[in-house]
Fold this protein.
Amino acid sequence: MAHPGTLHLYTKKLTAFEHTPSNASSQPQNTLIWIGGLGDGPLGVKYPSAISKALPKNWSLAEVLLSSAYDGWGTGSLARDAEEVGKCVAYFKSLRPKGKVVLMGHSTGCQDAMEYLVGAGNSERESIEGAILQAAVSDREGYGAIVADDPSLEESLKETIDLATKWVEAGDGDAILPKKGNKVLEMFESPCTAYRAHSLLAKGGDDDYFSTDLEDVTLKGTFGKIPSRTRMMFLWGSKDPYIPKAVDQEGTLKRWARIVKEGGGSVDEVNGGVIQDATHNLNDDSEDVVQDLVGRVIRYVEGL
């Protein structure tokens, strides 16, 4: 399927695909930059196209290609992602100097958005007006749920975390972990470094922003540090299989919002929340569910 748009080279070898706005004669001033999750790349998730068609005429949506896209995630890091997202933000800021920029993360794209806002070097990055976290889930909890009913998989997950930790502590974090005989690593489509496996699977790893067992004091060092100028919105799907069934979804999102606000930040709780019947990326969801997501995003950007 062809998708009309403009391919921007925002830095050497990396591009952003900007969907042609529904009002093709308009010159959008504001940019919604969409960041995919593990294994994703531009146009791999369907709903950004639906958002693009519904955006106000002064907004457009661009899907950013990162080095970690598709099979590149296993040898990447949030720090590298944030650096590349920063270059994309700077590009669109220079292209539209009077415009607003909002990041919208999907799945691990949400970790990227958080790393951009509160990770190392954040003070040197361009300011953004907003960040939407859609399907901000914990890889650590997700894989824990996957292996929970299979003792051999549970043991494999433990062995993976132990091995990754050992290699990282020995200074070999960039080395690729051996897949053969490891049931968890065999699930990964990408070769995976010890660092990235530890980051994704170990408690306190660099990717561990959204685990529901993290204490408030930990969250205050992340959610509580989000700049006041950046309005947040959190979106989860009621049928997201990567959210543990025992988790109070509404309660968790309210907890995150509380900590953001206690730190002086701002959250759109009117349009944010749990989307009924939505799955992780909504690719196979009904049109009503997709339009629920779209409507929330449109109202959010209109309120900025």
Remarks:
- The chain has a mean pLDDT of 95.
- Residues 5-138+211-302 form a domain with the Rossmann fold fold (CATH 3.40.50.1820).
